[in-house]
Amino acid sequence: MKALIITDGTESIQFIAQIIKESLNGGGTNAKIKIKTTICAAENFQGNELLPTDIFFIGCEKSSPSSFKWLEDFLAHINLASRKCGIFSVKAKSISYLKSILKDSEADIGEPLLAETVKKADVKKWIKQFIKG
């Protein structure tokens, strides 16, 4: 399996993305999970990185970051109904924003991760539930 994590590049979101990557690659609470995972900054996202993935994640600190403009357009014009997507942020308003940009893509959005205070255990627990769900 392959996964992609798209971020806004902010420190808090990068930290969460790294924990997600570690968890998916067999680290932490569920060593049975082994998914090849790539982290990509939205400003470098080309679209083709998403094609070979089975699951993907999107995270941003603030709503509508400038680096997400192309991603917003991309998600409005692609059908991802067969893919699971995890969304995460440190702010509730950003979770709502992420849900809105994914709506047209029809991606299967699991329970979002709102990590107002980032704790590794909480992220790992969320990943475990995301994979099972």
Structure description:
The protein has four helices and six strands. With 133 residues, it is α/β, with parallel strands linked by helices. The chain has one domain: Flavodoxin domain (Rossmann fold, 3-Layer(aba) Sandwich). Strands 1, 2, 3, 4, 5 and 6 form a six-stranded parallel β-sheet that branches. The longest helix has 14 residues, at 11-24. The two termini are 16 Å apart. The mean pLDDT is 91.
Short description:
The chain is of the alpha/beta class and 133 residues long. The chain is built from 4 helices and 6 strands.
Mean pLDDT: 91
Shape: globular
The main β sheet shows up as:
6 strands, parallel
- CATH architecture group name: 3-Layer(aba) Sandwich
Radius of gyration: 13 Å
Task: Tell me the fraction of residues in β-strands, as a range.
Answer: 15-25%
Separation of termini?
Answer: 16 Å
How many domains?
1
**Helical amount:** 25-40%
CATH topology: Rossmann fold
Number of strands: 6
SSE inventory with pairings:
Elements: E1 2-7, H1 11-24, E2 36-41, E3 55-59, H2 69-76, E4 84-89, H3 92-102, E5 108-109, E6 113-114, H4 120-132
Parallel strand pairs: 1-2, 1-3, 3-4, 4-5, 4-6
